[in-house]
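Entry 14. Structure prediction run on the chain below.
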Amino acid sequence: MAKSRIRLFNQFRAGRKDASAEATTIAKDRTQLFNQLTLLFLALVPIVLICYLLVFLYPTGPFNPFRPIALEAAMTPPPTWTLAPTRTPTATRRPTNTPANTFTPTPIPTATETAVPVPTTSGGRKGTPLPTATPAKPKPTEPGGTPVPTPSEFNYTAEVIYERAQLYGTNWAGIAGLVFGLDLKHQPNIDVHAWGDAPLGPQGQTLPSGTAVQYGPSGWEFTLDDKPAFGKWYVQLIDSDGSALSPVVEIKMEGDPLANLAYVIFTQNH
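Output returned:
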């Protein structure tokens, strides 16, 4: 009986040792697993830091999945144009001075000669006619004596300004502008015809004013290239029948990024 008890006790102790050894093995395996995971995370930390540094230094790089969107065109305010009270046309034909009013000299009761023409007065006596000086180039005048400019042959005159395109930057070239009426208010729906070198070609393109409101209510625009352009083009206002409303405006570009926009302002004069 005693031997049986001793045998059972020894078996119980052996079972306890096996269970303890198995638990120790499991704990050791877990410890090794955690150590390996810790080393893996430690190795990934500098890689992640390097990636964040590259994204911070080069936000537009290919490794940035959330690259910023260029907002240059959207954030740049459109140009505002202030019309001067008077404009000097640069692309119009030179006006001719045609005398509108003439003065009829009349004899006056004096013996002193003068070169000033004397208008006719009623009720005066007739005397000796005096010599008068004929002006070489008479100019038309208003009743108050203010010279009256001769209207242009066309209904509209034009002014060209070369400048850097504020809306698109230097990687663009084009022709744009505005159309104003007699009251210096915007005039949309006036046909603008442009032609010349590529991409417009000899036949050219026609579009109405008011289609490029980023320049103003009567704005219009022709795109020539996605970089500063070289060439010569022409712009003119026409009516619905194709008749000219303005003189032909010549546009010449020489690849200057600071003059990649030819800004043409048409103003009605009569």
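Residues 1-68 form one domain.
Filed with the rest of this week's runs.
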